[in-house]
Amino acid sequence: MDTILLLLLSVTFTASFASFIISFIMVITVILTYKFGINPDNISVMIASSLGDLITFVVMNENTLDVLKFGWFALFAAMLISNCAGIVFHRSIQSFPDITSLQLVVNGAAGNLVGVQISRLSTELHRNAKTGELPCSILEYLIFTRALLGEGKEAQASRILLIIGLCGHSLFISLILVYTSSSMLFLSFIVSYLVAIFLQITLLLYFGQFTVHLLWKFKFDPDNYSIPLLTSFGDLLGTVFLAVAFKIAIQFHGP
């Protein structure tokens, strides 16, 4: 009984102390970003989601130190891309206020879909190839038709994910039509919206195929590097395409 109580006390103290440290760092981060005129949402979320894992890497397992040493590139690159997406989003709100109700759904769904494909490709490489070696030339992964129109398992999975994304967003738009009276849901916008979704997911799946194999070629683990890069890139694509969809729809429908 004493051992159980000691274990519970240790776990509670550790969790509380870790939460205190992370909360303190987050408060300092938010204050500093406000001081320098930067939107804290574009920085604090990345730090909060990764700080605990990074500390664990340092303390628990020396085999993961390479992630701590070299994984910063992906995080900083993702942060820069997310900042670009934030700038586009901030400017788009001024012209299209309704974009705020769709941006999270558009970017979140695409990030999840490309994450699934990246995990599949990475697992396949870990199972069937040596680190740094590819089944074919890296240039073949630049071929667009190979990613989506080919006969291999990669292309089949990409097509399935693309269909899932389009069906999910079609259902989302349908629910909005049924349960709300939003003035933005006219035909030209619905068509523009679905085209934007198609382009976003298609480009993410294409770049995902190339990025995973390029990282593997240079002996980087795609699971650790490609997901932050491509999800942030998906945020940028989604925000840009969504703003363009609003612009095109308004041109056809009128203000």
Automatic annotation (TrEMBL):
Keywords tagged on the record: Ion transport, Magnesium, Membrane, Transmembrane, Transmembrane helix, Transport
Domain SLC41A/MgtE integral membrane: 105-244
Lipid bilayer topology: Multi-pass membrane protein
Keyword Signal carried by entry: no
Magnesium keyword on record: yes
Membrane spanning residue stretches: 6-31, 43-60, 72-89, 160-179, 185-207, 227-250
GO molecular-function terms, A-Z: monoatomic cation transmembrane transporter activity
GO cellular component, one term: membrane
Pfam families assigned: MgtE (PF01769)
Main location: membrane
Top-level taxon of origin: Eukaryota
PANTHER family xrefs: DIVALENT CATION TRANSPORTER SOLUTE CARRIER FAMILY 41, SLC41A_MGTE INTEGRAL MEMBRANE DOMAIN-CONTAINING PROTEIN
Protein family membership: Belongs to the SLC41A transporter family.
Record-given protein name: MgtE domain-containing protein
